[in-house]
Amino acid sequence: MTQIDFRPADKANYEALARLTRTMTPEQQTFVAHNAFSMLEAIYYPETLFALGMYEGDTPVGFTLYGVDPDTREWWIVRFMIAGTYQRKGYGRAAILKLIEHIRTQHGADAIKISFVPANTPARDLYLSVGFVDTGVIDEGESVYRLPKPDAAGE
Length: 155
Fold this sequence. Notes:
single chain; Aminopeptidase; alpha+beta; 32% helix; 6 helices
């Protein structure tokens, strides 16, 4: 299995993480916000949003922004992307599983939500494969999925 490590987005790696957005196809770029915007959001909301680069060794292969909704206290994977050159090679699955574990162990999260553009079928298939379920909710044009807490999912 592919080994993924997380590193906080900071002044040492923000440019490399921002460039990852350009590695996706034009269609894929319509599915996610630019990584630079996501990192800016984490700077402005440091109590609730966390920006992480996903690495294999010293190579950045993806980016995620996750956080907690301050009103509902629900944990969300707000952004999740794998660079184009690393797609379909197991990085997405390794990264999402590690991210779920990270959110649960570091923050005590039970259920985790994620949303995505419905046309992004590779994302949908990945999220379903790791246990997310469709809530039936469409929020700002995106499908909302939920990963139940482990005891509810039989894990």
